[in-house]
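Quality-control log, excerpt.
Job 1 of 2 completed; input and output follow.
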Amino acid sequence: MKLALYGGSFDPPHAGHVAVVTEALRVLPIDRLIIVPAWRNPFKPSITASAAARYCWLEEIFSPYEKVDISDFEIAQGRSVYTIETVKHYAQKSDKLYLIIGADNLEKLPSWHAFDELNTMVHWVVATREKTPIPDNMIRLTTRVSVSSTDFRSSFIPLGLEPDIENKIITYYKEHL
């Protein structure tokens, strides 16, 4: 089985995340794409939306996608989980593992916990909106959606999702910010 993992805070999920998943399904030779929302990202001091809310939103957003699963693996740990732990968990279930990251992570990548081991276990896939240089040993996913979770949280710019899902998310953040 060929799997792609796409982890992150998804705080909140938005059209950029959907674009990454759509492009990955188009480009990668995979059987399943697994979205892994973090309980809390080890590089971020806090999260706004609860893990349960983010998980439910992702389930709702990606329910029409036949090859996409939402995983509660990291949420179930109840702590920040290093990517290597998640990769080891899914490596047991696959013969080829792709790891999707955003181009904004490239600079910090060597500082990730157990990076050298992680680097031997996955095929790197980098999602980018700009012309960020991507190393030759990595697969580029180009998207053209410029929404960001940070921009949304600071000014409630549209997320680009279906209106009913977007309204649920906006209501949640207005109550919790």
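Job 2 of 2 completed; input and output follow.
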Amino acid sequence: MEAIYPYAHIIHLVLAVIFIGYVFTDVVMISALKNKFGKETDTKIAQTLGAKSFKIFPPALLVIVLTGGMMMSKYINSSAGFFETPLQQLLVIKITLALIIAIGVLYNLYTKLTQKPKHPFMQEHFHKLVLVLGFFIIVLAKMMFVA
């Protein structure tokens, strides 16, 4: 496990940057385009971006979760303990926030595959929530090794 940790870390960070970068772009930049070019153009933009993101982000998130789990096992396990150190406590909070994002993505995949309507919160505010949680995950990731 120790030998693959650096590679898992690099893959995890690169995909996390891409994931949060897309969400940032959607919340800050793309949302500014809404209602600027008419409903038909807005719909085309949303469909185009949605189709592309549907192909990229579920596999990316899966790899982020898997690599995160691999890295987590270095710091939280039966011999190291689970909540004994500040690092472990912050890591558990970070994992909880990441699981909220993962559950939301799974919910969005479910509604897309079953063609059921999304809950209004998920439609309007989920990316904002992901951006805020992502910010705190990044801060916690850095604080873990300072505490």
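Post-run check on job 2. The mean pLDDT is 92.
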